[in-house]
């Protein structure tokens, strides 16, 4: 196993060890935000029939071809057709049908003229009355055609396409009421550390609240997974090894935090090695150099570092892509923009540094990025108040204010093109 690998190598390694999970069928509403696991077809034409796009009068365009302001054309209103009804009679010369939005276009009509441009001659434009037209209309104007969006049997959502809220409506119209999707991964969240107490406790001296478990569970849910927070594990190799072995048999992915470094009480690496196979230990990034990954009985086990910002970044960069792949997503990169640095940055660590930063848009439309003053890897609040990571590439090259840096946007979907 190499000593330290790049973030790209680490991501490839983790991605190579996971596959899309088995397919299940979920009710249409539960498919929102998830990639379809099969092509989905409509059972009918969409729209099912040609219908009026306006409240007005249905007629044949040639009936009013010579209409003008000086010599309007008058027609008798012979019937009224509402949405849900069907008019099956004939429309003779000199006649038209009052029609509502959504009502099927009568067989004999080829256009609809909306109320607003029609004059009422008698009978309030209702059946038995008479109306006048002072301009011609185009054939098929104000008509929504049958099969405009899809034909019966046509694939309307392709495999891999992420179903949006509008897609849910589209599929409902197509008669698709359940959608095959890849099962959501079940992720075990295990916090390691004898110093930890649960968030509802007030820590005594030397103890600290287990905030990582909550953040990582939230990250897992945001990635579409089902997160289960498990009890804190003390710094003991035996206890940790037993817990990851148990989790590996019950979950699709195991995430631990803490104990990933080389301290006297850091046990995740030997625990993975003892229970299975350790494939990775350190990644060339900051925060979060210590990133352990391996397989236990075929299940991916990821040992994040204990420092909150380091754990968060490791999850974002290395675990989130894997959880997405397991659900059939194909984009694994959060959107990035290039921004001008708001202040000088002196690079003292050759690792690739992800600066917790705030991105804003200047008046000329360009982006400006301001790194937070406190870049300690022990802080969650700084990330809560940031909206991106500004990336300082490997090496020791410092950057001056105004120079362009690449920024990864936080909490913006990989499927968004910016
Ligand atoms: N000699 C060295 N020591 C350390 C190095 C190093 O290169 N040489 N790297 C430091 C860095 S950077 C990090 S990051 C940590 C990573 O090590 P661990 O994964 O073993 O982290 P822990 O020691 O377990 O914890 C670090 C820190 O985070 C707190 N913590 C742990 N778990 C949680 C949790 N669930 N919720 C909130 N906070 C947590 C813990 O109390 C520590 O303060 O190693 C450094 N050391
Ligand atoms: O790996 Mo540590 O997080 O650089 O802070």
UniProtKB/TrEMBL annotation:
It holds the Pfam family MoCF_biosynth. The keyword rRNA processing does not apply. Keywords: Magnesium, Metal-binding, Molybdenum, Molybdenum cofactor biosynthesis, Transferase. The lineage of its organism: Bacteria, Bacillati, Actinomycetota, Coriobacteriia, Eggerthellales. One of its GO terms (cellular component) is cytosol. Coiled coil: none annotated. Belongs to the MoeA family. It is an enzyme of class 2 (transferase). Transmembrane segments: none annotated. CDD domains: MoeA. This is Molybdopterin molybdenumtransferase. One of its GO terms (molecular function) is metal ion binding. PANTHER family: GEPHYRIN, MOLYBDOPTERIN BIOSYNTHESIS PROTEIN.
């Amino acid at each position: 196993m190499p000593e330290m690998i790049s973030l790209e190598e680490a991501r490839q390694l983790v991605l190579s060890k996971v596959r899309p999970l088995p397919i299940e069928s979920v009710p249409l509403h539960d498919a929102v935000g998830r990639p379809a696991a099969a092509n989905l077809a409509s059972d009918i034409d969409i729209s099912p029939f040609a219908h009026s796009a306006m409240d007005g009068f249905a007629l044949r365009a040639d009936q009013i071809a010579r209409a003008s302001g000086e010599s309007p054309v008058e027609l008798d209103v012979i019937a009224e057709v509402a949405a849900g009804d069907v008019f099956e009679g004939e429309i003779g010369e000199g006649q038209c049908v009052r029609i509502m939005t959504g009502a099927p276009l009568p067989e004999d009509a080829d256009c609809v003229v909306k109320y607003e441009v029609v004059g009422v001659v008698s009978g309030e434009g209702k059946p038995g009355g008479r109306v006048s037209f002072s301009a011609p209309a185009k054939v098929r104007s104000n008509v929504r055609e049958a099969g405009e969006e899809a034909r019966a049997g046509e694939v309307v959502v392709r495999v891999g396409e992420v179903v949006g809220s509008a897609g849910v409506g589209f599929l409902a119209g197509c008669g698709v009421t359940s959608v095959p999707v890849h099962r959501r991964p079940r992720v075990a969240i295990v916090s390691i550390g004898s110093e930890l107490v649960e968030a509802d406790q007030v820590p005594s001296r030397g103890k600290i609240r287990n905030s990582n478990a909550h953040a990582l569970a939230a990250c897992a849910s945001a990635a579409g997974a089902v997160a289960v927070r498990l009890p804190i594990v003390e710094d003991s190799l035996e206890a940790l090894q037993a817990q990851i072995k148990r989790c590996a048999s019950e979950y699709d992915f195991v995430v631990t935090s803490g104990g990933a470094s080389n301290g006297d009480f850091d046990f995740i690496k030997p625990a993975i090695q003892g229970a299975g196979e350790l494939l990775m230990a350190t990644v060339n990034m900051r925060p979060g150099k210590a990133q352990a990954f391996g397989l236990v009985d075929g299940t991916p086990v990821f040992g994040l570092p204990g420092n909150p910002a380091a754990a968060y970044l490791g999850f974002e960069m290395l675990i989130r892509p894997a959880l997405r792949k397991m659900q059939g997503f194909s984009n694994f990169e959060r959107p990035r923009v290039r921004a001008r640095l708001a202040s000088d940055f002196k690079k003292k660590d050759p690792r690739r540094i992800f600066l917790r930063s705030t991105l804003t848009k200047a008046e000329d439309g360009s982006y400006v990025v301001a790194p937070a003053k406190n870049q300690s890897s022990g802080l969650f609040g700084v990330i809560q108040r940031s909206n991106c990571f500004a990336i300082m590439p490997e090496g020791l090259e410092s950057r001056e204010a105004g120079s362009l840096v690449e920024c990864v946007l936080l909490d913006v979907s990989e499927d968004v093109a910016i």
